[in-house]
């Protein structure tokens, strides 16, 4: 079938075509689609606009199926319905609405597990299986001078290391088994500076600078070489029960509970 456009769009044709004096011109429109007179276009492609609207929409596949089902029901209820036009004739049709009803029934029959675990009931802060609704962070108890202080795992930097390599070494030093962890970037997410107790100060050192790195534990559990009672897994709101105020103030800037 020849491709035509209406004379009203003749400005998009070449000069040579205009000189031929034809009332209708052969043209392939920009973008590779044929341009037809409005009435002829609607006659030949009645569902073209609907298809374009669906393709460019933000509907999910399930929402598109609901629209398709509604259109199919509307056609079947019309006086000019022809069953030969349906590709799925003779097949069992599962409507999207039927699926929603099935899902609703399954949801009502589902028994959700309790979010309160055995570790919560026993107040076992050494277990990862607690406070399931919160992110947990690891704290360890270290002896600084004569005082036991809770802090994040840390390790002294060694010449030749990057700061991230030092952080990785601090984590691997916690366990004799391999710890699978995902470090979030190569740059520290926080910083803290403190002074050593007077008994630990030297001629050239009076304190330390601590750089924090974020890492996500990929193991389901962590077998630490720390004694039970020397490490805890706590949520952000529990940090205040362990950390010193100045340390806590810096930590709260980057520890986010989502």
TrEMBL record:
GO terms for cellular component: mitochondrial inner membrane; mitochondrial large ribosomal subunit. It comes from the Eukaryota. Keywords: Mitochondrion, Ribonucleoprotein, Ribosomal protein, Transit peptide. InterPro entries: NUDIX_hydrolase-like_dom_sf, Ribosomal_mL46, Ribosomal_mL46_N, Ribosomal_mL46_NUDIX. One of its GO terms (molecular function) is structural constituent of ribosome. Residues 54-120 form the Large ribosomal subunit protein mL46 N-terminal domain. It holds the Pfam family MRP-L46. CDD domains: NUDIX_MRP_L46. It is found in: Mitochondrion. Belongs to the mitochondrion-specific ribosomal protein mL46 family. This is Large ribosomal subunit protein mL46. It comes from Engystomops pustulosus. The lineage of its organism: Eukaryota, Metazoa, Chordata, Craniata, Vertebrata.
